[in-house]
């Protein structure tokens, strides 16, 4: 049986992640924009290096490698190499393991770019919202 969404804080406080019942800062708080962008840059550079070294550097192949890094990393380790390096992890909105289907859906939507740059009031990207995941600090 699905659990109901967490209630907002009783004191009326509001911060990114408060609508999801997440703490304001520290472990299990929502990863902030700067950290998320840095993670994407790390992953993109890694995908670019792998593609240049092994596959000739075609831009579409770089995007494919980037997507595979995300899908496999989230499904198996809870985050892409950039996420893990910068102390983040991807989980379901109820804080459980994201699983392979959510990881694949999230990666595809991330590669489309637009869903990743549309955020809700909790600063969660549309790609996360659509697949029911959240990016947290470890």
Q: What secondary-structure arrangement, pairings included, does this model have?
A:
Elements: H1 33-55, H2 59-77, H3 81-85, E1 88-92, H4 99-111, H5 114-117, H6 126-131, E2 133-137
Antiparallel strand pairs: 1-2
Keywords: Membrane, Transmembrane, Transmembrane helix
Protein name: RDD family protein
Transmembrane segments: 61-80
Structure description:
This protein has 138 residues and is mostly helical. It has one domain. It has 6 helices and 2 strands; from the N terminus they run αααβαααβ. The protein has helices spanning 33-55, 59-77, 81-85, 99-111, 114-117, 126-131; strands at residues 88-92, 133-137. Strands 1-2 form a two-stranded antiparallel ribbon. Helix 1 (33-55) crosses helix 2 (59-77) and helix 2 packs antiparallel against helix 4 (99-111). The longest helix has 23 residues, at 33-55. It is elongated, with a radius of gyration of 15 Å.
